[in-house]
Amino acid sequence: MSQSFDDISAQLKRRHRKSARLKWISMGALGLAGLFLVLFFADMLVKGLPAFKQAQIQVQVDYSEQASQLPLAAVNEDVRSLVSRGYLRLIPGRMEDNPELLGSTRLEWVLADGQVDQYLKGHHSKLKAGEQAVVDRLVEQGRAELRFNTTFFTSGDSKMPELTGIASAAMGTLLTLLVTLSVAFPIGVMTAVYLEEFAPDNRFTQAIEININNLAAIPSILFGLLGLAIFINFFGVPRSSPLVGGLTLALMTLPVIIIATRTALRSVPESIRHAAFGVGCSRWQVVRDHVLPLALPGIMTGSIIGLAQAMGETAPLIIVGMVAFIPDVTTSFTEAATVLPAQIFTWAGEPDRAFIEKTSGGILVLLTVLITLNATAVVLRKKFERRW
Amino acid sequence: MNMQVAERSSAPMSGQDRSGQEGPGQKNRDQQRGQPVTHNDDAHHELSIRVRDLNLWYGQSQALKGIDIDVFQKNVTALIGPSGCGKSTFLRCLNRMNDLIPNVHIEGLVEMDGRDVNAAKMDEVALRRRVGMVFQKPNPFPKSIYENVAYAPRMHDLVGRKSDQDELVERALRDAGLWEEVKDKLHQPGTSLSGGQQQRLCIARAIAVQPDVILMDEPTSALDPISTATIEDLMDKLKQQFTIITVTHNMQQAARVADYTAFFHLGEIIEYNDTKTMFSNPHTKKTEDYITGRYG
After folding, report:
1. What is the ipTM of this complex?
2. How high is the pLDDT of residue A327?
3. What DSSP string runs through B132-153?
4. Fewer beta carbons within 10 Å, N or C terminal of chain B?
5. Predicted confidence band of residue A387 (pLDDT cuts 50, 70, 90)
6. CB under 8 Å to A174, separation ≥6 — which residues?
7. What percent of chain A has a predicted confidence (pLDDT) above 90?
């Protein structure tokens, strides 16, 4: 007995309803995930964007003989507590560098104290009522405003929120990643090439393969312990340095690069290898001239993603001492340094509320760099994607 | 009629205790072994590759059983037989491409130019330089047409100056009948060509290093009839310079292009014969069944 279309449609209705329900649930999940993402970004932007502006006030700076000894004397008493002490501290030095300043009095825009900044941004501040009145008057006269915060991008860490910046952490990240890349990339790629193209398939190589896959799943703080034990305690690499941080992150990035490279090598069709062997290439020539060039986009993508992962890593670096107070931007591989996520971590622990926006601002910078890196990876993959 | 088969089935045994059997009959039989049943008077008969008692195992299963064959220079020798009968496996024994497959075990003699190609001291790179290969699916390198041809000669140090290289590329492409079609786009990717052109590019790549032998593993099975005809004409022309051994599923093709044909079945050579004789008057019943389409 064959069924009529009506009979079949009646049965199908239930199945269609079921698939429609599943579709809605999936879309709901996606929507929820998107919502969280948007909330996160919005929160970061709202909290972090103010960090890119900093209060400045216009005051009379009196470069007197007295000011070169006692910088506080350079500004008038009524606005003295509103000017950043960090700025005042620089006055004697500036006077030494520019002798013609001596004796002059200039109207200058100077960095305001962090509390003034918080007051102008409408946050809670510790300014007394009198000081608030002075700031209000300055604003009315157009002598106090929020200006673009170059300090944030040019200076290192500081205990004064108006003087903190991410430059030393950014330089630390750059140096650390350079070490990571130059160690992990060649070792990772060559390991993968050996395992994929040369190694015989036996118990031993299978064990290595399983262990590499396991390494990728190890909690990153354990790599920090490993780095501490081996690089610092055994080899005596200076602690807190980009060198030890980079080496530690290289340990962590290696499995990622190895796995990505093996996948890329495996996706090169066997026919290319046969063609190359067929014209008399040695195994190494097959790899160098034919397989590696085809696998390179995949390898680069994997490595960039591995690096991005390493860049956001904090836990192993805490162990090797890279969470440090670094006020100066250093370009040495062996001196103490810190990295962006560690800097964010440090700021997050500061009691001063002005550091909240610094923390969020740091996160925004880190996110921007990470998104740029990942986008580069995607673009590279799209650009070099080949069909055979 | 079945004499050939009977003799062949005893061959592996005699191979194993060859030392104990150096009788007067042995020499005679050795002369018989590997020879075609009927001689093709139009063909050349200088020995190119001599195969004796070749056995091959993939793990536990034996894929080639006591293969004996003499392949002659500057002929087209076709290998036919049903799927899985060992023709391609045998072909890959001749340039040691089976080395790339794990768990392959080979016994027996494959001799070229008086040298055992499976000997430990035989460099497979040197062997593949003299025994080129064309594959079932066209597999040009994902490089330019020019580079596809120039790569191997440059790698083997056959050319020094750029002008020599240009000349060699042109000659190889001309010999492969592709020059006129690609001379204006030598720097476009090889993969941009049509299937038949790609296969001729692969042939040009193989002949660019001036090998002695070209192995073709079903070179036309992925091509349309017109491209197939072009390749067949090409094989006919190339055999003046090269020894061609081709695997084919297409019996008409074997009949058209081959001087000698070997019929493989279940890892053995059932019949090795002059092509015309094999297709008109096969020596064994199995061959007759196969070529008349009764199985396979």
Report:
1. 0.84
2. 87
3. EEE-SS----SSBHHHHHHHHH
4. N
5. low
6. none
7. 52
In a domain, B177, yes or no: no
Q: How far apart are CA A288 and CA A197, in angstroms?
A: 11
One domain for residues A74 and A186 = no
Q: What residues of chain A lie within 8 A of the CB of B152, using their CB?
A: 279-281
Which among A62, A116, A123 has a CA at the least distance from the CA of A85?
A116
Amino acid at B186: L
Other C-beta atoms lying within 10 Å of the C-beta of residue B201? 26
Q: What distance in Å separates residue A283's CA from the closest CA in chain B?
A: 9
- How far does B76 lie from chain A, in Å, by closest CA? 19
Which residue of chain B is at minimal alpha-carbon distance from A281?
Answer: B125
Domain span at residue B275? 3-16+36-143+195-291
Distance (Å, whole) CA B87 – CA B81: 7
What is the distance between the alpha carbons of residues A36 and A42, in angstroms, rounded to a whole number?
10
When divided into structural domains, chain B yields a total of: 1
Inter-chain residue contact B125 with A273, CB threshold 8 Å: no
Nearest-10 crossing angle of helices A292-311, A167-193: 140
CB < 8 Å to B216, chain A? none
Segments of chain B scoring below 50 in pLDDT: 1-30
Report the amino acid identity of residue A112.
A
Flag if B139 and A201 touch (Cβ within 8 Å): no
Residues 6+ positions from A374 with CB-CB distance below 8 Å: A304, A305, A308
Domain encompassing residue A223: 167-384
Overall domain count for chain A: 2
Closest among B147, B230, B155, B152 to B189, alpha carbons compared: B147
**Which residue(s) pair with A59 in the sheet?**
A108
Residue A319, Cα to own-chain centre: how many angstroms? 18
The three-state (H, E, C) secondary structure of A132-185, written as one string: HHHHHHHHHCCCEEEEECCHHHHCCCCCCHHHCCCHHHHHHHHHHHHHHHHHHH
Domain-located, residue A161: no
User: Do A327 and A242 belong together in one domain?
Assistant: yes
Structure tokens at A142: 């157009």
Rounded to 5 degrees, what angle do the CA atoms B80, B84, B90 make? 65
Model confidence pLDDT, tens digit, residues A27-85: 999 999 999 999 999 998 998 898 899 999 998 888 888 888 888 888 888 888 888 88
* Integer Cα distance of B262 and B274 in angstroms: 9
Distance between CA atoms of residues A192 and A205, nearest Å: 11
User: What distance lies between CA B159 and its chain's CA centroid?
Assistant: 27
Per-residue pLDDT, averaged over A136-162, amounts to 89
Last residue of one domain, picked from the residues A99, A117, A149: A149
A265 vs B71: CA distance, rounded Å: 38
| B97 vs B127: CA distance, rounded Å | 10
Q: Is residue A62 included in any domain, yes or no?
A: yes
B38 — phi, psi (to 5°)? Answer: -120, 140
Q: What are phi and psi of B5, to 5 degrees?
A: -65, -45
Token pair 């104290």: residue? A113
CATH number at residue B10: 3.40.50.300
Residues in chain A: 388
pTM of the model as a whole: 0.82
Q: Is residue A250 part of a domain?
A: yes
Q: What percentage of chain A reaches a pLDDT higher than 70? A: 99
Q: Residue type at B116?
A: D
